[in-house]
Design a protein that fits this description.
Distance between the termini: 31 Å
Number of domains: 2
Structural class: alpha+beta
Largest sheet: 4 strands, antiparallel
Helix content: 25-40%
Shape: elongated
Strand content: 15-25%
Radius of gyration: 24 Å
Number of helices: 5
């Protein structure tokens, strides 16, 4: 189902003119302007505000390039390389339980330093956790100590790219009639219907109820039931008894 078919279904439901296109002549079509704005807003509300959908989870990998120079007098004996990395272009935010792991210490997460002052003090005093440390600064991630060549760090994040582009790839907005929502298009349609009626001051309780029911079902089936006993490596942060997954 494309954004055009979603909007056509919504228009038929709320009683506005059935469009042949969302984007053709949109500059002079107030209804389609509102429909497009609502579609983009609803897509992001579903994609980011309600659940960390498995479909929108992605992995950021930061590859180390640190090299130790020769010891004095031929060098300073210090690791030189990149300590600050850009987040991927599709980065929206971290997950509520995100941890970063180094490839050379895969069972133990790196330490996250949330306070900027603490980060500066630790860097000024050359103090750091043996697992490595990281923080967010200026839309970038900073990692210390510098990752050496052959070592990388990775973390799972939530992507903002809720649109599968007809031209190829993914984006964060609908730009063509044949673009589609990466999650369940029926959620988008039902969400747009109740929001449209709400915006216009029309009764919307029944539409919102249908949307809520569909949303609950989609959220419940987004990932399998938790497994308590499994044959997998035990994280260094796991202790018994542990919290039951939800």
């Amino acid at each position: 189902m494309t954004i055009l078919t979603v909007v056509q279904d919504v228009c038929a439901n709320v009683g506005v003119v059935y469009p042949a296109s969302v984007f053709a002549g949109i500059a002079n079509n107030r209804t389609m302007q509102e429909m497009l704005s609502l579609a983009n807003e609803m897509a992001h509300a579903i994609g980011a505000d309600l659940r960390e959908w498995t479909r929108l989870k992605a992995t950021a990998v930061f590859t180390g390039d640190g090299v130790v120079t020769s010891p004095p007098p031929y060098g300073d004996g210090v690791v030189h390389g990149t300590s600050r990395f850009n987040w991927p272009a599709g980065f929206r935010r971290l997950l509520t339980n995100s941890n970063m792991y180094r490839t050379d210490m895969a069972l133990t997460p790196m330490r996250y330093v949330a306070d900027a002052d603490e980060w500066l003090v630790r860097r000024a005093n050359n103090n750091y956790d043996s697992r490595g440390e990281w923080c967010n600064l200026g839309h970038q991630v900073e990692i210390w100590p510098i990752l050496p060549v052959g070592t990388s760090a990775q973390i799972v994040y939530l992507s903002k790219n809720v649109v599968a582009l007809a031209s190829g790839g993914y984006g964060d907005r609908f730009i063509a009639d044949n673009d589609s929502f990466v999650l369940d298009e029926r959620l988008l349609k039902l969400g747009m219907q109740w929001r449209w009626r709400s915006n216009k001051g029309a009764p919307y309780a029944e539409d919102m109820g249908s949307y809520s029911d569909a949303l609950a079902m989609a959220m419940g089936s987004d990932k399998p039931a938790p497994i308590i006993i499994d044959r997998k490596a035990v994280s260094g942060t796991t202790a018994y008894p542990w919290m039951v997954p939800t």
